[in-house]
Fold:
Amino acid sequence: MVNHENPMTKYIELENIGSGGFGQVVRALNNATGGEVAIKKINLQGLRRKQLTLNEIMIMKRCRSPSVVNYLDSYLLGEELWLVMEYMDGGTLSDVISQTHLSEDQMAAISRECLQGLDFLHLNHVIHRDVKSCNILLRTDGSVKLGDFGLSTQLTPEKSRQCTVTGTPWWMAPEVVMRQPYGPKVDIWSFGIVGFEMVEHEPPHWNQSPASAKRLIATGGTPQLRWPKLVSALLRDFLSCCLQTDEERRWSADELLQHPFVTSAKPACTLAPLINSVKK
Ligand code: 3AM
Structure:
């Protein structure tokens, strides 16, 4: 699965970009090409971490698309796994949401790019399972891509539904919190919650504990915007198509790409000024 060369001869580390429970992410330069990469250094201690990492690499290797943060290489250094991927120089959608107010045009362009990523994953029978604004990565040229496949799962003809309760509570679909078998449409619900983040700067029930948020998702139906009149009827309709509690009635990524809110969106490059201004 992994490359056995010494990555330190291939990459020059530049700076720490961030960290999480898994370890840290650094920005580095490829010595040979001069290109920037991001290296996720994952601490492999513990069986669960090993399984999650192996899963992440397998899914990233398979899922190559312009709408997904691309995998480049991986290395094993003792108890640490280095996952080398394309560097997203524009930060995350979460940074943008916390620092500015998005126009509906910008929300539409971001939605189309994310839905293209989800459509690609779902066509390949992959469920992301952790769609949220901090896992949507940006580039200063306006590109928007899905990242962090740590909780993703590959469906197979033998196992076309999943039951494991996983994800980030506030973004979880009702069928996940209710421990029912679920499919790719859980990502569409989570994406609808990203829509809420874009409009209201935070997901529904954000002030609640994880356990209360899950209870409210299980019983609360389609979340309602706090100030619906500030949002166009088209965007309200788009969000309600994503946030149907009945999975059958919830639209697929492919269907949402045909929704007029998305079909009228401008090209991704129009997001470049926004991403650059937040980065500054
Ligand atoms: O800690 P923050 O949220 O600033 O966005 C990711 C997160 O940043 C960033 O690394 C941090 C820990 O996950 N990150 C992850 N993959 C990245 C990539 N491919 C990345 N930044 C740039 N390019």
About this structure: The beta strands are 11-20, 23-30, 36-43, 71-77, 80-86, 126-127, 136-138, 144-146, 153-154. Residues 17-20, 25, 38, 69, 85-88, 92, 134, 137, 147 surround 3AM (CB under 6 Å).
